[in-house]
Amino acid sequence: MKSFQAAILISTIIFLSAYPVSAQSGTYATPSIQPGAISLQSSTAVYNPSISRLWLQFGSGVVLGAAGGLLGGVGGFAANGFNDDFNAIGPVLLGTSIGYLTGGALGIYLVANSSSYDASFGYIILGNIVGAGVGIGGILLAENTFKGDAPKTLDVGLAFSSVIIGGIIANSLTIKKRSNQSSALFNISDSNSQLAIPSIKLTKTNHVNFDKMEMRNSYSPTIKLLNISL
Predict the structure, then answer these.
(1) 137: how many CB neighbours lie within 10 A of its CB?
(2) What is the chain's Cα-based Rg?
(3) pLDDT of residue 154
């Protein structure tokens, strides 16, 4: 058990050294757009999740990865006709690997993708694959260090954690801030431009009645005509 914890700790240190984060998530304000005025909002804001958010991605990736690996292993066993023989090892291992990669990527994606950020499921899977390669390299290094007698928990910890950490790093490098967080009639960004149904807000205005010397509040509809995200 100590070896498994050590593997997780080593992988975490590698991840944190490759991807600096702050203690708290950044907050991004979306400026309002009034008719006749153009408000610019940045689509290149740095993706800077909190440590707890990263751990949530890691935990979700491991849990859904394990579930996907189990389903993939059962699928591989079924593909072999449920025959409990030596020939079933290959399909079961293949199904388990594909299931863990896919499930782990889904777990990371569900946490990272939000109304503010657009995560890429494909890039996360690619990161999982690269992480798996790094994990295999780590296992070979551990076996060489321990003269072929490395603890199995260390090997398993490296294999499972490196896949998820690879996906998290890939997500942090490829995730994009959503440019059209507010809907206008014309939405222009650095990637594409589009027409959309504009949102309508009620704007409070003040009117002074000089005859009665009083002020009245009224509300008028405001339509967003133009949204530029650069």
Answers:
(1) 12
(2) 26
(3) 81
